[in-house]
Amino acid sequence: MSRDFIGYLLGLIIFIIGIPFLMYLASGWPNISQIGFLQWFVLIILAIIGIGLSVWSIAYMKNVGKGNPFDAFNHEVAPRTNSLMTDGPYGICRNPMLAGVFIYHVGVLIALLSLGALIVFVIEILIMSIQVKKEEQRLKKDFGEEYLQYMKHTYRFLPIKK
Predict the structure, then answer these.
(1) Distance CA 13, CA 52 (A)
(2) Using an 8 Å Cβ cutoff, are 19 and 124 in contact?
(3) pLDDT per position as a tens digit, 28-43
(4) Burial, 115: exposed, middle or buried (Cβ in 10 Å; 0-12, 13-18, 19+)?
(5) How many angstroms separate the CA atoms of 80 and 87, rounded?
């Protein structure tokens, strides 16, 4: 089994299934049938947009960058890219995979409308921000001035240009 497959499988389990399930548990096991039509609609739209952005980012990094920038707390999960990706989804923000996950999780949050789900989401953002800052240190080391210039023109997570 390749490291790529394991990395993507872990991403699926943690971000697409696991964290939304934790949000659901933290909401007190709400009855799904009580979630309103509008909440379901928003969840589905944000899931499509968010997961779509994440998948586009993964495919782009794999096919164009020939690797992945992701290290899981100082452990290489997938082969690293040899060049800095600043176009495609990476022209939108520096971490479009996570931006997509966060968009999806906002949809889950809206569907659940609970303080518990919000707490899980905030904790996720804090943990992932720490992880991303570590990745940024490695990217600064690997790509130097090119990465510093990229940082000036793109936000970490917000999918809009500075």
Answers:
(1) 16
(2) yes
(3) 988 988 899 999 999 9
(4) exposed
(5) 17
Is 56:89 a contact under the CB 8 Å cutoff?
Answer: yes
Domain ranges of the chain: 3-153
Q: What is the pTM of this model?
A: 0.89
CA 61, distance to chain mean position in Å, is 14
Fold of 3-153: Four Helix Bundle (Hemerythrin (Met), subunit A) (1.20.120)
pLDDT, tens digit (0-9, with 9 covering 90-100), for 41-96: 999 999 999 999 999 998 898 888 776 655 555 555 556 677 888 999 999 999 99
Q: Which two tokens stand for residue 26?
A: 């933290």
Q: What is the pLDDT of residue 8?
A: 79
Residue 127 structure tokens: 């943990």
